[in-house]
Amino acid sequence: MIRLKDTKHPNTAEFLDSAIRVAEYYGFSPLDDMRISKEKDAKIRAATSRAESEITFSRRDERGYISAAKRAAAAARTLRQGGGTNNNFLAWRVSGGQGSVPQQTLELHVVGSSSAIAEAILLVVANAIAEEAGLRARTLSINNIGSFESSNRYVRDVGLYLRKHIESISPTLRPRAVEDPLGTLVQLIEKGHPAAPRAPQSMEYLTEEERRKFWELLEYLESFGLAYELSPQVLGSRDFWAHSLYELSMLDEETGGRLAFATGGRYDPLATRFTGAHTPAAMIAINVEIRGKARTPRRAPLPPAIYFAHLGPEARRRSLTVLESLRHAEIPVYQSLLYDKIGEQMVRARELGVPYILIMGYKEAMENTILVREVATNSQEAIPMDDISNYLKRRRMGAAKVEARV
Fold it and tell me: What are the chain's domains?
């Protein structure tokens, strides 16, 4: 959990206001404002209710994420029923967090995309929020538990390992070691049990395809310059998570240890339970203590005049760096990093009616340039990436706009 004394914010409301501004810059919108149609299918309603009761929780914080996960899944189901071609969305939600200390939780969700860009966006935005708050000496820890099939082998070996060390486990925890090996291992890790570091590691059980997809996420982080460590001790329930899990922590200068303030991962299994159909989804939850004013006024930013489009995987990897530099320069832009095809992005740009489009393809990514296209004349110019913010400001293409209160 983030302690406000470690930030530049005097109260919880100011922290949340700053965090939400960062999230909304990247295209996140309020989850609670999204349209959700009432489910008419009795079988799906019954399956959703049953799914929640059957979940095995390996971590205490997982229970607190159920409400938002159900709402995100319902919003995804509503989009799917609407018959649109784009069912991807980014959403944020503030809720009361779990734990003995009063706290607020800012959840960020990316729903509808199975690409590693979903987790990359979440980690870049969470890191930017922490940076804006003034949190220093941050550490990003990442693990991967693979699909349900590959993690079956992992959990089987964890069970065998725990049996060999059953005498060192407390008597109250021994029954769980038989029924829920993964949850037991999570508890041993939390307690600092000496057997935990030598337990089997989930990344060793990944298939070649799962390794390739995981490496794709790490490539995004390396391209952005976000340092990380691979940590086999970042785990969670298989009813909740699949593939990537991650944790952001900071150095506790008083104790020299780490304070975790954000956790998350890909929760495809849970979203699929709640929608009745395969639904890719990822999230990160940022916890902050409640101190002073806690409610922040809602603000509606005016629409940007620029749309950022990418073409190809290399340009997509470089896009996160470009967007973060534009955010620091206070130049608002639309983006659709969840789209795979340039045609889809051009359609979206036309729908938004922006006068300017920034385009980065493979050639531009290799040459460190960005094309700036004026929609009215269809003229375009290649601008060095390092100069793009100054170029847009000199021509008043991306002047920061005053936000209106709602």
Answer: 4-146+206-289 (3.30.930.10), 149-198 (no CATH), 299-405 (3.40.50.800)
